[in-house]
Design brief:
Elements: E1 2-7, E2 12-19, E3 22-30, H1 37-51, E4 60-64, H2 77-98, E5 103-105, H3 107-113, H4 126-137, E6 146-148, E7 158-160, H5 163-183
Parallel strand pairs: 1-4, 4-5
Antiparallel strand pairs: 1-2, 2-3, 6-7
Helix pairs in contact: 1-2, 3-5, 4-5
Length: 185
């Protein structure tokens, strides 16, 4: 069984590939330098065709569902609309190139399915908490790309590359999708 998980944003698309319910690979497409949404879509499609479609028969594609309500201090209406538009374009690319209708999974449903507890009172950011959960779930056997901060108050600190969080989100979506499908055949 081959399953793909996507965490779609207009700057980075996180991608996870599971074979037989185990992580096979994590990847990402960096779209941050491109401004045009259609060129971003073409960049994603080129990557998807070259690196994903050719790995075998895909059984399921899981995509993190878009936010459907505002949360204080987060994305503006313009940002949410742009993201929803891009999510639709990427979903269509996936469908056209695989014939599979993607299954959309709400991020909270995915976290609940995997029993990921987010401590809202923690000084640790939500994305960092998810990253820590994924790293632990992988038994710390995945070598996450890092960078050393070269200036400022965090100079010398080793941090995950920005795209690692998108890959971790794609991992959560795909793993939750597999479990949800097992529970509801």
């Amino acid at each position: 069984m081959l399953c793909i998980g996507l965490d779609i944003s207009t700057s980075i698309v996180g991608i996870s590939v599971f074979k037989d319910k185990k992580l096979d690979k994590l990847n990402y497409v960096d779209l941050s330098k491109e401004k045009c949404i259609f060129k971003k879509a073409k960049m994603f499609e080129n990557f998807f065709l070259k690196n994903i479609v050719n790995i075998g028969f895909i059984d399921y594609i899981y995509i993190e569902d878009i936010l459907q309500s505002f949360k204080r201090g987060l994305s503006s209406a313009n940002t949410l609309m742009k993201l929803a538009k891009f999510n639709g374009i990427v979903s269509n690319i996936v469908y056209n190139n695989t014939g599979l209708i993607p299954e959309y999974i709400n991020v909270n449903t995915a976290r609940k399915t995997l029993e990921i507890k987010i401590d809202k009172n923690s000084s640790v950011d939500k994305k960092e908490q998810v990253m820590m959960w994924v790293d632990k779930d992988l038994n710390e056997n995945y070598s996450w790309p890092t960078k050393v901060i070269s200036r400022g108050p965090n100079k010398g600190l080793v941090k995950y590359e920005k795209f690692c969080y998108d890959m971790a989100d794609a991992y959560v979506i795909c793993k939750a999708g597999i479990i949800i499908n097992e529970q509801n055949p």
